[in-house]
Amino acid sequence: MTQRLEIRGLAVAYGRTVVVHGIDLHVQAGEMVALLGANGAGKTSILRAISHQQVTATGTLRFEGRDIIDMPAPAIASLGIAHVPEGRGTFADLTVLENLRVGAIHRRDKDCIEQDIARMQTLFPKLASRAKQTAGTLSGGEQQMLAIARALMMRPKMLLLDEPSFGIAPRVTQEIYELLHQLRESEHLTALIVEQNAQVALNLVNRAYVLESGRITAQGTAAELREDDAVRRSYLGH
Known about the structure:
Blueprint: E1 3-14, E2 17-28, E3 32-36, H1 43-51, E4 56-63, E5 66-67, H2 73-78, E6 81-84, H3 96-103, H4 113-123, H5 125-129, H6 140-152, E7 158-162, H7 170-187, E8 191-195, H8 198-202, E9 207-212, E10 215-221, H9 222-226, H10 229-235
Parallel strand pairs: 3-8, 3-9, 6-7, 7-8
Antiparallel strand pairs: 1-2, 1-4, 4-5, 9-10
Helix pairs in contact: 3-6
């Protein structure tokens, strides 16, 4: 597989406070990888460093072989990196349909946008029935679906997902993860997923990294981490 994302010696800071300390990780094309760990472990900060949002980052950060460490956020998005932040970030006053169109605003293949909207409505049937509702009137789970669908409207090469299960019902979490599994299998979607729910994440991803206090403490395939005693005790509840 082709390496899509390469991180070497990455340090991330907010002002003078360093929250990620010289980590290495990579994501191959067509692979889904999770960042696991408790609140404050540095997971979200890694995604923000990749998409160049609100943090200072040093080290090596390459996307498809291209150095992006100092690249501004719009340029990073134009390379095909779509970031779905924690809290979803939908436009509350816009309708579902308008939010989807915003996701495709920088695409050049304008003639394919309506086709992709129809595809999103097939993937997320709840969005189809709420196309004319404003995003602010949707449930938390529906807003998460909309945020993911809007990111997919970019036709991204890589999806950054921050806590997709946070604050939503287990049933809706299952729906979202089943859809991500479908996209991985059918379209070879590449994704880096931050998730506190290790069990649900390890049922989806190929590999994962475990972070504590901004450092990687364990890594491996999903199967390997399920058998790791420390991971089982700390994150899987047994």
